[in-house]
Specification:
The protein is mostly helical. It has 10 helices and no strands. The longest helix is centred in the C-terminal third of the chain and has 28 residues. The termini are close together.
Amino acid sequence: MSGSARSERVPPGPAQSPVGPAQSPVRTARTRTRMLPLGILTLALVTAAVLRPTPLMVGLAVLLAAIGAGRSLVRSEPWGRADDITTVRLGLLLIFTALIVGGTGFGWAAVAVAALGLTLDAVDGKVARNARSSDPGCTDAGAAYDESVDALVVLVLSLGLVPLWGWWCALPGLLFYGFRGVTLLRPAWRRALPPSRARKVVAASQGVLLLTAGSPPALAFPILGVLCTGAALLALGWSFGRDIVWLERHRAEGPGTLSVPGARPS
């Protein structure tokens, strides 16, 4: 989903403190809500291991799950329904990875799994927008979780195209992490970006273009795969470049909340 929906989430009120030795209802509810995403990820990990029963696949699936959800699962902020949908998306990504590892291109089964994940990307945005005034999970932490999964989706799709069209196909997936790395040295790039419809369109198009680039039609007509990957890279590069120019022009205003162009549109 576009990052705008999750970034508009309303921060929850002050957390209730437990009285005496008993655990507070709020804390109990938070613990209970973590059980569903843990169950989803466990099921996805088992499915991935069954589809590709190798130590490499198991390790890769665990690594992706940890990168995507590790920080969010232990966060102190509440967990919402949109976060559950994001977790399903992450689980589908693990299954998609198992379907493409060791192969060439994306088979129809992998395309179907990835397409479902991309559809849910829009669904969790709608859930977050509808619930932002009442759902305690409507927090910036939820937006960060969604952003993390979005970046992983683009990374896996990009790396999956490398055996087909070359190492340059990995660039769309690496831009997010490269930008994050630069923000450690360039605090001015942490400022929140102004709203941009173009940024939303670019972010939403990445999954569709990269998935198409590795699909059976692209394998039958290689020019389709190269054009789709090139279009994804050019669009994302333009979006990052435009936003970096804006960040540099406003660097005198000082650092702000971390916001990644292209990966988490406003």
